[in-house]
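Record type: monomer structure entry
Structure origin: computed from sequence
Chain ID: A
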Amino acid sequence: MNGEHNLPPGLVEKIEQAKRDNEVAGIANAVPLPGALRDAFSPQQDIIVGKYKVRPFFDLDFEILQMCDHPLAKMAMGGEKYGEKIQDLRGTSAWLLCWLMTHDIDEVDELSLLGKEAVQKAARKEFSRLQLGGLLEISKAVLEQFGRFFATVVILEALSEDGDDKKKA
């Protein structure tokens, strides 16, 4: 076999072993990791801003932003750009965004079931007394997480009846 490939002795065997190792790794990586390990190996990590952790954005966050008529939800739906006006980065919209993204998604979900006012009240209580610089830094981290969320979108297309992609050169 070495003569066919014109490779040094032992290299073909090493290549074959690497292929087997890759197959095993693929099977192992297909199994979801538990809790802390899943989070440690997540491609989307928390962003630390002072004492706060800005977690990754989830689809549920978008639903809650829509429920609260948040400007970021409008922007995501193709409306005006968020953050171009200083009032977007302070006040109720900033407090809501900061609260939403610095709390566990399950806690956010539970409180959101009580309605828009409950979420706004919690956001006001925690973030209304932060200075503009603090709100701005957390908001920047939130917008980074928001961008990561949409950057991971993959457009899927149906296969044609013969199993090939619709798009062909």
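Annotation 1: Residues 132-151 form the longest helix (20 residues).
Annotation 2: Strands lie at 47-49, 52-54.
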